[in-house]
């Protein structure tokens, strides 16, 4: 079972890229972030023609998350976080697909900091951690997947000294990943590639992708039941090289 995450940075504007990637890789489940489309503008028909059922949580111009499943429609189990600090923002969606519970998230960026955007990020993280604590001990496989907007370690960023004051990299944000993994969630990509510098995002500016000046901010965290089935993980860098593509690349895991 191949589960992927992809911050598409506008699902309608990047639809040709998304469809090309789906056709080339055929993931079983896909978590999309940053749809930037209201509920009624989600391109369901095009995705169904590509062989995918979908549920989505849209928002005009900003945010938005969706879960796609090849050959079926995900069974929605949750829309929004319990105790969400701003329910008007579409940032969390959860569904069951073929025996796996998948949570799709788009965590707030938090810049500029200090300020209200960073305060909101910390409140959202707290609400997310509370939900993660409830999901962690489940007997069924659980995957919390998406754009976390958190750079976990210095190995996960090109020139970390340039990011010390950024809301993606400050200690109180990085500590959230440490708490999650310390509690028992497995960082799938890092677990299978412990010594590699692996990036999932490259800015459009300063020729960042060609220079491989990137960040790792897109993560798939697995509970124990899912971790036992983990057999592969990677980044589809080729999608980042396509014309009119997102600034993120898809990240995927394979479960037995």
UniProtKB/TrEMBL annotation:
<keyword id="KW-0378">Hydrolase</keyword>
<dbReference type="InterPro" id="IPR020847">
    <property type="entry name" value="AP_endonuclease_F1_BS"/>
</dbReference>
<protein>
    <submittedName>
        <fullName>Exodeoxyribonuclease III</fullName>
        <ecNumber>3.1.11.2</ecNumber>
    </submittedName>
</protein>
<dbReference type="GO" id="GO:0008311">
    <property type="term" value="F:double-stranded DNA 3'-5' DNA exonuclease activity"/>
</dbReference>
<dbReference type="InterPro" id="IPR005135">
    <property type="entry name" value="Endo/exonuclease/phosphatase"/>
</dbReference>
<keyword id="KW-0460">Magnesium</keyword>
<comment type="similarity">
    <text>Belongs to the DNA repair enzymes AP/ExoA family.</text>
</comment>
<dbReference type="InterPro" id="IPR004808">
    <property type="entry name" value="AP_endonuc_1"/>
</dbReference>
<keyword id="KW-0479">Metal-binding</keyword>
<dbReference type="InterPro" id="IPR036691">
    <property type="entry name" value="Endo/exonu/phosph_ase_sf"/>
</dbReference>
<feature type="domain" description="Endonuclease/exonuclease/phosphatase">
    <location>
        <begin position="6"/>
        <end position="248"/>
    </location>
</feature>
<dbReference type="Pfam" id="PF03372">
    <property type="entry name" value="Exo_endo_phos"/>
</dbReference>
<dbReference type="InterPro" id="IPR037493">
    <property type="entry name" value="ExoIII-like"/>
</dbReference>
